[in-house]
Structure formats: C-alpha cells, structure tokens
Amino acid sequence: MTRNIDEAFKEATEFIDIIKKPVGTVSLEERRKIATETVENFRDYINKGFLEYRKSVTEAGEFAVTEWMGQGSILKDALDREFIDILGGFGLYSYGIRHPKIVEAVKAQLDRSPQYSQEMLDPLRAKLARVIAKLTPGDIQYGFFANSGTEAVEGAMKLAKFYTGKKGFISMLKGFHGKTLGSLSLMGKNDYRAPLLPLLEGMRHVPFGDVEAVEHELKYAAAVGDDIAAVVAEPIQGEAGAIVPPDDFWPGLRQVCDKYGVLLIADEVQTGFGRTGKIFGVDHWDVAPDIMCFGKALGGGVVPMSGFFSTPKIWEVMEPNPFMHTTTTGGNPIACASALAAITVMHEENLPAQAAEKGEYVMNRLQELSERHPGILDKVTGKGLLIGMHFVDDEIGYHVASGLFARGVITAGTLTNARCIRFEPALNIPMELLDEALNKMEDVFKSLPSS
C-alpha cells in the first residue's frame, strides 16, 4: 500500500460528511457505493477470510448486506433491506439496538465530557460501581471497569493470582472466556489454543458440570504442589451452545472451592444482566462467587463496557498500590452513563422476567418444530433467551442459518461451524417479531430435504 496522507484525510472527511447527513437523506447511489466499497475494504484492509464466512456476502446477491442502521430488534442494510435480529450481537443487544433511554443518557454525557482527566475523581464510575455492588450476590462490592469481556477475565485472573499468591487455574472444557492470551489459556477449545501454545502455565480443564472432576484436579494439584488460585466457569456455557449444568454444579463448586481454599470466578460476560431469566446466571442456584466478570450487555449495547468485581477482603490486595491494574479508557463517562441507563431499563422493563417468559415460549415452539419436522434439530438447550439450537450436523445448521437470512432473519452459523446456532435476541423483542422469526424458521425447515 502506497502512503498517501492527503488521500487518507480526503476519504475520512467524505465519509464523516455522509454520517452527518440526516437519516433518510443519503442517496441510494451513495449507499450502493458504500456497500460495494465495504466488501473491497474488508478484502484489502481487514481480513479477506471474513468474506468467505459472512452470509451478508455469500447469500446476498449483487450487493452485500452492509449494516446501516438499526432500532430495537430490526436491522436495516444500506439498500433498505430489513432483518429481524435474533442474534443480538451474541448478547450485546440485551436491551435492543439503540434503546432511546440509553442513547439519550450517552448523548447527555457527551455534552459534558466523553472521557475523564485521569486525575480528578469521576462520579459516574463511582456511582456505577455502587449500583453494581448492590445488584450482585453475596459480599461482592469492589470493582474495576474495562472495555471488553476478555479484559474483565484477564483482570479477574490477575486479582486471583495477586490475592492467593498461586498461579494455577481450573476451567471448563468447551468454555469460552475471550481470546487475549490469559483468557485464551482458560479456553476449553483446541482450535483457538493450539496455534498459540504454550500459553499460561498451570492450566487444567475439566468437563463442565462435573464437580467431582473439579475436586479430583484440586486434590491432584495439591498432591504435587501445583497450587490453584481459582476455578473459572460460565454459569451457563454460551459459545458451547447454551449448555446448562446440572442443578448441583454451582452449589457444589462453591463447596469444593471453600474446602480447598481456592477462589470461585463466575464469567457472567454473556449471562449477566437478565439474559438467562435472572439478573445474573449464578442467581439460578443462589451461589455467591468470589469474583464476577461482566461485559457485553453491561454497556447497554451502545458503548463497549466490561468489569470485574470482588469482595472487600480480596480487593484489599489492590489498595496499597491501586495502579497494579489500570486502563486509560475503561470506565469512561459515556460508558458509565450507558451502563447506568441500561440498568434502569433492565429494571423498568423487568427484562429478566421477559427473558424467562419468552425463553420458555421459544423453547416450546422449537420443540414443536422439531417434532413436526424430524431429522433437523437434535436438541434445544438453554435458559431465558440464551438458547442453543443443536442441529443434526453442520450442513443442516448452515442451511437453516442461510435460509433464515434469505427470509430476513439474522442469526449466526457458517459453513464450518453451524451445528449449534444460538437464539439470542433482545430481551424486550416484541412477541410478534418472535413469532415471525419462528414462522420463518418453520418455512426453512419445510424447505429442507430431510423434512
């Protein structure tokens, strides 16, 4: 690529001018140009591999589906094609796209200060921490804010090591905690780990839902002097396909961690803030972890936001030198305004209850579809609106995902990874949109040869 500073400034200015235009005034010709250039720009400046996996390119015809705007549970592309969103940004859009109360709070804070000075005390971060302390179970009270879920997990790992003086962790097979090196060390999937080995030492992986396996590893580690700082798990495994553990798993984890003097870390990045039908995933089993990680929905789907929280006793190790763990942009005022507004929306709209009710409805409908059209769905798993549709094989899963896309419904699933597709819409998605998406899913099932 030849350096051309003038051209860079010119292109940036032209695109900002388009963004500033009132909604509905960007011409169709301009939007077609944007759609075409977006594919070229992904190919030449992001990663051409993405284009092979995106249905927005492979299934879209002459013009790729280029995301342009959204509201609630409806996405619209640059050519005005509309889609029902049942993917929900993999849990990002728990409150829907551009919830007006959250956007309003962010705009108001932008008029004051979008970032903080790094020297003065910032009231929004302090207030948000207080609010989360009042929402969380047990003695969770102190926290640190960052920008992404993997940063929250990294911070939790550092805190556990710092407090215990130990290096090892036990995590779950098929678990997902992020893709930075520390979080990746916890991951229970070979595909992402193997090319980057060796990762952090002292990692052990056990089957999700198996308390006895956790206790065996703790016993073996103690026998050979491999100290374990913490056990890390998602309350319900998201990336693995909305896998719900046995009801004795989380209470059992709490007991065995107490028995062996190790910390219990709950990765609530995907399950937190109403997604599973409770405010937090661990609330289904009335368990209080030692450290909790948050992300995705915490920022209200408007500003990226994450955090990790713990008890006063554990957090004491951070007090002598509070600069042991810092970030320049984490917990910035607009992110905190977004998170505070999101929490009020969660309460005002009773989103955990909505997730529980709608989740039960969706799972019943999917089970009925499976019975009417055998040979397509193997099983349906999950809680609330974190639902996994497990298909007989990848090929069928991809045909369902691409068939839904062609009918104006956004979900995930690629040619190489579609055996399980998550059904994870906004918690406040209207029932009529849920029904429309499910009806279109039955249309796809009917079109498959096995039906």
From TrEMBL:
<keyword id="KW-0808">Transferase</keyword>
<dbReference type="GO" id="GO:0009447">
    <property type="term" value="P:putrescine catabolic process"/>
</dbReference>
<comment type="similarity">
    <text>Belongs to the class-III pyridoxal-phosphate-dependent aminotransferase family.</text>
</comment>
<keyword id="KW-0663">Pyridoxal phosphate</keyword>
<protein>
    <recommendedName>
        <fullName>Taurine--pyruvate aminotransferase</fullName>
        <ecNumber>2.6.1.77</ecNumber>
    </recommendedName>
</protein>
<dbReference type="GO" id="GO:0030170">
    <property type="term" value="F:pyridoxal phosphate binding"/>
</dbReference>
<keyword id="KW-0032">Aminotransferase</keyword>
<dbReference type="InterPro" id="IPR015422">
    <property type="entry name" value="PyrdxlP-dep_Trfase_small"/>
</dbReference>
<dbReference type="InterPro" id="IPR015421">
    <property type="entry name" value="PyrdxlP-dep_Trfase_major"/>
</dbReference>
<dbReference type="Pfam" id="PF00202">
    <property type="entry name" value="Aminotran_3"/>
</dbReference>
<dbReference type="InterPro" id="IPR005814">
    <property type="entry name" value="Aminotrans_3"/>
</dbReference>
<comment type="pathway">
    <text>Organosulfur degradation; alkanesulfonate degradation.</text>
</comment>
<dbReference type="InterPro" id="IPR049704">
    <property type="entry name" value="Aminotrans_3_PPA_site"/>
</dbReference>
<dbReference type="GO" id="GO:0031299">
    <property type="term" value="F:taurine-pyruvate aminotransferase activity"/>
</dbReference>
<keyword id="KW-0670">Pyruvate</keyword>
<dbReference type="InterPro" id="IPR015424">
    <property type="entry name" value="PyrdxlP-dep_Trfase"/>
</dbReference>
<dbReference type="GO" id="GO:0033094">
    <property type="term" value="F:putrescine--2-oxoglutarate transaminase activity"/>
</dbReference>
<dbReference type="InterPro" id="IPR050103">
    <property type="entry name" value="Class-III_PLP-dep_AT"/>
</dbReference>
<comment type="subunit">
    <text>Homotetramer.</text>
</comment>
<dbReference type="GO" id="GO:0042802">
    <property type="term" value="F:identical protein binding"/>
</dbReference>
